[in-house]
């Protein structure tokens, strides 16, 4: 088909839930898992978000994987915005983007103000940054 990319890119969902990495396992090995996935040729690494089961927090996992990987895209397969204040989420996502050298697929806020006037202003700016990225 015209305009179709002939390359197939595969990603992997990092097993950040305790049930996935098992009791007695060291969750710090998830960074090694991310590096191995990159070495095997996966083009992206994804994390999901949730509160119902014990897990490594999604953005924390991306922050840990960001400096250890070089060429993969990092992203959130599911991120629950209701769990985070918009400005804190924006700062976390921007930090991950910086740590990864710009390889995050999550909305990035490159220069957000140190203090925002109100919660409605921060919500509007966070939504605007997400809308402008795609």
What this model shows, in words?
This protein has helices at residues 18-21, 29-39, 58-65, 86-99, 119-132, and strands at residues 11-13, 44-47, 73-76. It has a single domain, classed as TIM Barrel. The chain contains five helices and three strands. Mean pLDDT is 80; it is low at 106-117. The protein has a three-stranded parallel beta sheet with strand order 1-2-3, with helices on one face. By secondary structure, it is mainly α. The longest helix is centred in the last third of the chain and has 14 residues, at 86-99. Helix content is 38%, strand content 8%. α4 (86-99) crosses α5 (119-132).
Question: Mind sketching the topology for me?
Answer:
Blueprint: E1 11-13, H1 18-21, H2 29-39, E2 44-47, H3 58-65, E3 73-76, H4 86-99, H5 119-132
Parallel strand pairs: 1-2, 2-3
Helix pairs in contact: 4-5
Question: What structural keywords apply?
Answer:
TIM Barrel; 134 residues; 3 strands; three-stranded parallel β-sheet; globular; mainly alpha
Question: Roughly what fraction of the amino acids lie in strands?
Answer: 5-15%
Average predicted local confidence, pLDDT: 80
Write down the Rg: 16 Å
CATH superfamily: Luciferase-like domain
Number of strands: 3
Taking the alpha carbons of the first and last residues, their distance comes to 24 Å
Class per helix and strand makeup: mainly alpha
Domain unit count: 1
Secondary-structure element sequence? Answer: EHHEHEHH
Q: Determine the number of helices (DSSP H or I, runs of at least 4 residues).
A: 5
The stretches of 5 or more residues where confidence is low (pLDDT under 50) are 106-117
Query: Regarding CATH, which class?
Result: Alpha Beta
Largest sheet: 3 strands, parallel
**Spatial order of the strands forming the largest sheet:** 1-2-3
The third-level CATH topology is TIM Barrel
- The outline comes out as globular
Helix content: 25-40%
CATH structural architecture: Alpha-Beta Barrel
